[in-house]
Every structure is written in C-alpha cells, then in structure tokens.
Specification:
The structure holds 3 protein chains of 3 kinds.
Chain A (H helix, E strand, L loop, with lengths): L1 H28 L6 H6 L9 E7 L5 E3 L4 E7 L4 E7 L11 E8 L5 E9 L15 H7 L5
Parallel strand pairs in A: 4-6
Antiparallel strand pairs in A: 1-3, 1-5, 2-3, 3-4, 5-6
Chain B lengths: L7 H23 L13 H28 L2 H32 L8 H22 L3 H16 L1 H11 L15 H43 L6
Chain C lengths: L1 H47 L1
Classes of the chains: A alpha+beta, B mainly alpha, C mainly alpha.
C-alpha cells in the first residue's frame, strides 16, 4: 500500500505541474528572452514591465565597482543596444563578448534595471591559449569580490 | 515463462562499473580546464552522458512498447517498464547535474527556458508512467495502457533534444567535435560508452526482477487453480 | 578555482550516489524476487504431489 501511496503523490505532483505549465508557464517562457532590438521595437509597451533581455555584452562597455558591487554594461544584438544596471557579483563566466540574459525592467530613463544576471555559454569547449590561464579573463573582473 | 538466472551478466556488470571508473579518471585527468569555465568543464562527462542515456532509455521504451502493442508479449511490457525506470533515474540525475553546473556557470540553479522545462516535463511523464503501473492491478490492462503512455512519452525525446534549436533558451545548443577540442571529445565519448554499459546492465537487472515477480504470480495462480503448473 | 571544484565534486558524488543507490536497490529487489519465486515454485511442486 505504501507503493500505491507513492504513486498517488507522484500523480498529484504531475497533474499540478502540468496544470501550472499550461496555465501560465508555457506561453511566457517559450520566448525566453527578447533581444535589444525587439524590446526597443515594443516602444512604450516595453517600459517598466518584467521582461528578460538577452544578447551579448558589448566589448569595453563593462563598468564594475567592486566596493559598491555595482555593475553596468551594454547588451547588444548587433543592431540594437540597451544599457543594463545591476548589483552583485556577476557569474564567473561574465566578460566582454559573452552571451547574457538579464531579468528585470526597462526603465523610462533608458537603463534596464536587472534583478538577475545569467551567462549564456556557447557550445565551445577550448583549452586556454598558450600563456593564458583559464579563468583569468573573469578573474581580472572579479578579483576580491568573488564568494 | 522462462526466468533468467545470473551468469555472464554479473561479469558484464562488474566490467561496466570498472569501465566507468576508468573513463571518469581518464576524462578528469586528461581534459584541460576550459578557457571560460575552468574546471567546471569536468561536469560535462557526467551531465551529457546522463542526458544521452536518458534519451536512449526512452527510445528503448518506445521500441518495446510498440512491439508489445503489435505482438502482445508480456516480455516486451516488462522490458519497456525496466527501461522506463532506468531512463527516469538518469533523467532525474541529468536535471540535478544540470542544476549543479548551472549555478556556477550561468549564475542560476534553474530557469524556465524551453530546454530545462521540456526535460522536466519528460521526467514527469515517465514518473507518471511508473505511477500508472502501480495503479493498475490487471496485468494485461496495465501493459496496454503503459505501452500507449510509454510510446507517447518517448515522442517528447526529440522535442527535448531539438528545444535548444527550435526556441531561444539559456541552455546552449549541442556541441560537436568542431566546437570542442579533441581533448574533451575523447573523454566525453568514453564516458558515454561507460554510461551505455551501465544502462544496459541496469535495464537487464530490472527486467530480471520483473520477470521473476511475474513468474511468481503465475505460479501462485497455478496453485490456486489446483496445483497445475503452466 | 577551489569554488569550482566544490561543484565538480558535488556533481561526481551525486552521480555515484544515484548509480550505486540504484544498483543496491536492484540487488535487493533481485534477491527478494528470487526467494519469492523459489517459495512459490516449492508450493507448486507440493501441490502436484
């Protein structure tokens, strides 16, 4: 009978999850993020609503204040670009040119205020070039601030 | 019903586990840290084989479910169920390993992108499949219903696989030998074979248990019918 | 870099915990199923006599 009770619990969790996914999960998440171009194209409707923004960290756009844990950079998709502001130490793979997805709101001041920052990895696995130590690229950014 | 008894399979099991220890050691020792994620690259050799073995197990479920629906042999039902349990185990492992990898690499344990969500849905479908088998007491009805659920559930495997190409996801698309240095390809392939052997051993063991249980039930029925053995 | 190793060790520990846990479950299940089968067969033979 305990096996049967286990099966009941499993079935309950199953139905609840599917209901949740159908109710609100799927259509909101099937387009996981908007590119800067798409968010800008939304015009007034794009401001001040919770949204995910994805693109590349524009090279040489990163400003990191490690004392205040304040991070600013520009997300670009090649066409559009949006400045992002967030606080807290970024994930270790964060660096110039890396793919990122940020969650937050696009403010009327033209800055995207992010509450969370995710780094999107490419499908490449490469050893560092000779003379380059792995992780150095993010370490220069993160020195003294990592957990 | 013929009940399998141990023999060469025991040695195959020993070999599978010894091979896994060998391939993991090989991969950990020979793979250089990745330029972006450093030593986190080592998680590749458990997460990716676990995911592949999940997909493969569910294809095994599909194959035996289809053959059960076609020929109606009890053996096929039990093999499909064994593969489903092993597949669900590796599916759960894949999800957890992905979380352990995602936290340091992406910055989050979980996010509701299409790859992660569809992998979770696949897991829930096969947990549901296993739950269904517990609910239904009549052996033939259980076999028929599970064959349908198993076959429909396996249709989700290509969806999970293609999710990273069909939709925008946080999860990256599949790597291939062109995007990976040979030092990583070798370790990944070796570990994929090790996981494959473990999967075969697990499915066989699970199938032996199920067929022993069925044979026991048949024997009990025979006793109830007046001591006549089938 | 030591922080990364924590996650790597966690991943490998989890993998082995799941694989060995399932292996133990299968071995126990098999032993139980075999003894149940042997008992049932003994009863069947007793019924034949």
């Amino acid at each position: 009978m305990t096996r049967r009770r286990w099966a009941f619990v499993a079935a309950g969790v199953l139905i609840a999850t599917f209901a949740w996914l159908l109710y609100g999960g799927i259509d909101k998440n099937i387009v996981f993020f908007l590119t800067p171009k798409e968010l800008l194209a939304k015009g007034a409707a794009g401001y001040d609503v919770p949204v995910r923004l994805g693109g590349q960290v524009k090279p040489a756009s990163v400003t990191w204040n490690e004392k205040a844990l304040d991070l600013q950079f520009v997300v670009t998709d090649g066409t559009g670009q949006i400045p992002v502001h967030t606080s807290g130490a970024p994930p270790q793979m964060f660096r110039d040119g890396m793919g990122v997805v940020v969650e937050g709101r696009y403010g009327h001041n033209g800055v995207f205020q992010a509450t969370s920052l995710m780094v999107k990895h490419s499908n490449e696995y490469r050893p560092p070039k000779p003379g380059q130590r792995p992780g150095e690229m993010y370490k220069t950014l993160l020195d003294g601030s990592g957990p | 019903m013929v009940v399998p008894r141990p023999g060469a399979w025991r040695w195959f099991g020993v070999f599978a586990f010894a091979f896994l220890i060998f391939t993991q050691t090989l991969a950990i020792l020979t793979s250089p840290p990745d330029r972006d994620m450093g030593d986190l690259e080592k998680i590749l050799y458990v997460h990716v084989p676990a995911a592949w073995i999940t997909f493969l197990s569910f294809f095994v479920v599909l194959a035996f479910s289809a053959r059960y629906l076609w020929k109606g042999r009890e053996k096929d039902d039990l093999l499909a169920a064994a593969a489903a349990e092993v597949g669900a185990t590796f599916n759960g492992l894949t999800l957890l390993l992905g979380m352990i990898w995602g936290r340091p690499a992406w910055g989050v344990w979980w996010t509701w992108d299409a790859r992660l969500t569809s992998t979770l849905v696949l897991f829930l479908i096969f947990v549901g499949y296993l739950a269904l088998r517990e609910f239904v007491d009549d052996a033939q009805r259980r076999a028929q219903w599970s064959a349908v659920v198993g076959a429909l559930g396996a249709i989700n495997v290509p969806i999970v696989y293609m999710s990273v190409r069909w939709w925008r996801t946080l999860h990256q698309i599949q790597s291939n030998p062109n995007t990976m240095d040979p030092a990583y390809v070798l370790g990944l392939r070796a570990n994929a074979f090790a996981f494959l052997f473990i999967m075969i051993y697990f499915i066989h063991q699970r199938y032996v248990i199920a067929s022993l249980q069925r044979a026991t039930e048949h024997a009990a029925e025979a006793v109830a019918l007046g001591g006549q053995q089938e | 870099m030591t922080r990364n190793w924590t996650f790597v060790i966690a991943a490998y520990s989890l993998t082995w915990a799941v694989i060995l846990g399932y292996l133990v479950r299968l071995h126990r299940g098999r032993r139980r199923a075999e003894s149940a089968y042997d008992t049932a067969m003994a009863e069947t033979r007793a019924g034949d006599r």
